[in-house]
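Technical annex, item 7. During the second reporting period the consortium partners agreed on a shared format for inverse folding records so that results from different sites could be compared directly. Each record opens with the tokenized structure and is followed by the designed sequence. A conforming record, contributed by the partner at site C, is shown below for reference.
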């Protein structure tokens, strides 16, 4: 192997990337490449699927993201000034890098969202450890300056990035998709590399697997922009070259740049993130009143629940005066499961339509509630999340149960409109490890949904 794709958009670059993860691994192996990166646009929710598929295929997964960097700070959101964010490819070298990237991406959504999830230079300075950065495509900050012949501006930015990331950790990225602007800026990137002694790396900004998939990606882009393929005025990608190319195809484009190919392999060797599945990764929490965390969580849940829906009687039923909203059945199930109040019966509907939750479910739900931040909303208590330190709702830790919902700290920023908590089936291997074989039972699942 002497080339690795380090800039690649999977299907999780929604309505843009068309590299289906399963087929991607076949394609990479077919090309004789034994590592590949995921760098979706601004998000990391494809990372676990990607990692598992790569491992299963015997391909080394490189975890990354093509983030958006705000032109000013992530808090500046003025129309006409802050619209043009810059792309930057970040790759995780190790667990510290993975945690930093997860943090950055979360901050991009929680604080920097303006059309796209955006971070800024301040965040990069604070959370660059363990990350390797590539200068990205024509929409990168440096290429943008070079496009308008601002070589000095590009140089200043290259210096700033290399100072943030350190030597041999910030790479100038070379792409050639037959786009005239790339032909214009590539010699300037080479000059920058020479003058600043920065390393180079060849990438292909892969958005689909094969050249013939360009039409499919074009349709995806149309859906994203609300245009038809026949619209003469729509924006289109000016190239059908952004596919998972072979090393030979790329070497023909950059015949003199052995070093920039060797660097793809060196970077791949330096990026080693391993996920551990089958274990919970609960954050430690000390209750302010000195009680144990479960009792405190239980109290907060009960308070929040009553605040929202009135008090419940001892057996968990509700007075006839308060009609539970349509989502109440799910809500109650999350509520009880989060309390750890195991029902003798497994999850399911009773004859009168009430939801019951099993002991296994009761074990599993607090993971969702504690780990994904928004899970606390299951308990209806908005105070709880800041009290617990506000976990990242998009922090994709393996083995956790994910929740999506309105950001409780910034209610005006809606990550989504609903909260979902999911209980792993009781015969899931990760559950068996936790519960031991004696608790294995038939498969039961629970999926609660709350909207408010
Ligand atoms: Zn880009
Ligand atoms: Zn890209």
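Designed sequence (site C submission):
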């Amino acid at each position: 192997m002497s080339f690795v794709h380090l800039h690649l958009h999977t299907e999780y670059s929604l309505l843009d990337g068309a590299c289906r993860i399963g087929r991607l691994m076949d394609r990479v192996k077919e090309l004789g490449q034994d590592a590949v990166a995921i760098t979706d646009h601004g998000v990391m929710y494809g990372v676990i699927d990607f990692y598992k598929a790569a491992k299963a295929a015997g391909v080394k997964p490189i975890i990354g993201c093509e983030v958006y960097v705000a032109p000013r700070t992530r808090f500046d959101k003025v129309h006409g000034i802050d619209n043009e964010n810059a792309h930057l490819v970040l790759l995780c070298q190790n667990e510290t890098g993975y945690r930093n990237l997860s943090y950055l991406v979360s901050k991009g959504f929680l604080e920097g969202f303006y059309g796209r999830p955006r971070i800024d230079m301040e965040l990069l300075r604070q959370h660059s450890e363990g990350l390797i950065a590539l200068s990205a495509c024509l929409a990168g900050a440096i290429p943008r300056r070079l496009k308008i012949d601002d070589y000095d501006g590009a140089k200043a930015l290259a210096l700033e990035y290399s100072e943030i990331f350190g030597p041999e950790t910030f790479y100038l990225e070379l792409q050639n998709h037959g786009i005239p602007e790339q032909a214009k800026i590539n010699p300037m990137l080479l000059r920058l590399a020479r003058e600043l002694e920065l390393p180079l790396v060849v990438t292909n900004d892969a958005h689909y697997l094969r050249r013939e998939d360009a039409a499919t990606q074009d349709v995806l882009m149309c859906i994203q922009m609300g245009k038809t393929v026949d619209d003469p005025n729509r924006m289109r990608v000016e190239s059908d070259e952004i596919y998972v190319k072979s090393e030979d195809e790329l070497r023909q484009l950059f015949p003199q740049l052995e070093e920039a190919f060797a660097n793809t392999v060196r970077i791949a060797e330096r990026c080693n993130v391993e996920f551990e599945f089958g274990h919970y990764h609960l954050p430690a929490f000390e209750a302010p009143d000195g009680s144990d965390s479960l009792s405190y969580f239980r109290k907060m849940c009960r308070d929040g629940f009553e605040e929202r829906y009135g008090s419940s009687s001892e057996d968990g039923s509700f007075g006839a005066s308060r009609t539970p909203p349509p989502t109440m059945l799910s809500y109650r199930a999350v509520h009880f499961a989060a309390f750890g109040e195991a029902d003798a019966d497994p999850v399911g509907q009773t004859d009168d339509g009430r939801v019951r939750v099993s002991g296994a479910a009761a074990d599993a739900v607090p993971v969702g509630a504690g780990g994904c931040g928004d899970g606390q909303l299951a308990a209806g208590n908005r105070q709880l999340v800041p009290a617990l330190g506000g976990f990242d709702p998009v922090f994709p830790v393996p083995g956790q149960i994910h929740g999506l919902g309105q950001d409780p700290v910034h209610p005006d920023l809606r990550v989504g409109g609903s909260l979902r908590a999911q209980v792993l089936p009781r015969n899931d291997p990760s559950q068996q490890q936790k519960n031991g074989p004696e608790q294995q039972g038939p498969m039961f699942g629970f999926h609660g949904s709350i909207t408010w």
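DSSP finds 15 helices and eleven strands in the chain. The chain has two domains: 21-270, 293-447. All partners now use this format for quarterly exchanges.
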